[in-house]
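Materials and Methods. Structural model of Flavodoxin family protein. The 180-residue sequence of Flavodoxin family protein from Fusobacterium nucleatum subsp. nucleatum was retrieved and submitted for structure prediction as follows.
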Amino acid sequence: MEVFMKTLIVVAHPNLKDSKVNKSWLKEAEKYPDKFTIHNLYEAYPNEVIDNIEKEQKLIEEHDSLILQFPIYWFNCPSFMKKWLDDVFTDGWAYGKNGNNLENRNIGLAVTAGISENNYSESGKYKHSLKEILLPFEMTFDYCSANYKGFHAFYSAEFEATDKRIKDSIPQYINFLNSI
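The predicted structure was written out as tokens:
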């Protein structure tokens, strides 16, 4: 049996160079090349055309764990992350007849949310928790027989992402990645 030892972090941030939190998180993850492979979709496919689905699938197969990392956009992932999921998680590969490449693979999400955590609650502005908003991802991973390991979130990324908060979040981010 082949044993893998690395986690693939698939990042979809349309403006990563100006990001504060995601850029800081990834900079820290880059310090552990023996543990994490970072795959930036916008860097790999600047025109947002995924021209080699098999290459993407092989990249996942070469890792034992998968993290999808993105900022919350309109209560979802950026459109390019959704396109990547639609194109890569195919029938016969991720699910369906002989589609077992995600079976028992650990998968988690690392997300940034622009506003505070209390707005993501039954009594908050959006009337739903981030866990509820991210439910379609959990359902997708369950459908593919993967092991969904939850998510790590940084709230108030838009207005309260101070250098101290970001720095303080890095150990929790790395611990989350290591727990997957």
